[in-house]
Write a structure and sequence with these properties.
Blueprint lengths: L2 H6 L3 H10 L11 H33 L6 H17 L1 H8 L22
Length: 119
């Protein structure tokens, strides 16, 4: 795939390729505004897919074993995974309701001041 084709694919692939194989800077998520909220929802969507696959496999194992006493630990994992997904949902919800705004200096409020690159 040519560089122009990667750029047309949203630009993310091009930045990731440049970082991985050409020594470019790592791609960074948006720091504020609705772009950050979209990023958080996209990441949450990936978590939902992982949750669905994991729960499906656990449920399949529970059905195959068929003994509730022997599958109690698997059932407990279903609850843990759901709890983690529920906690994860707080991030995109908060970025949607209260999007981070850039400071006067153009820096985001989502990162501590000591984490910003000095330069």
């Amino acid at each position: 795939m040519r560089r122009e084709e990667l750029a047309l694919a949203g630009g993310r692939g091009d930045a990731r390729f440049a970082h991985r194989f050409a020594g470019g800077p790592p791609p960074r998520p948006p720091r504020h505004g609705w772009a950050r909220a979209r990023h958080e929802w996209r990441e949450f969507g990936k978590a939902v897919i992982a949750w669905a696959v994991s729960c499906s496999l656990l449920l399949a194992a529970i059905v195959i074993v068929g003994d509730p006493d022997r599958t109690q630990a698997l059932t407990d994992w279903l609850l843990r995974l759901t709890l983690v997904l529920g906690i994860w949902s707080l991030w995109p919800i908060t970025y949607t309701l209260w999007p981070a705004k850039p400071n006067r200096g153009g820096r985001s409020t989502s990162r501590p001041a000591w984490r910003h690159d000095a330069g």
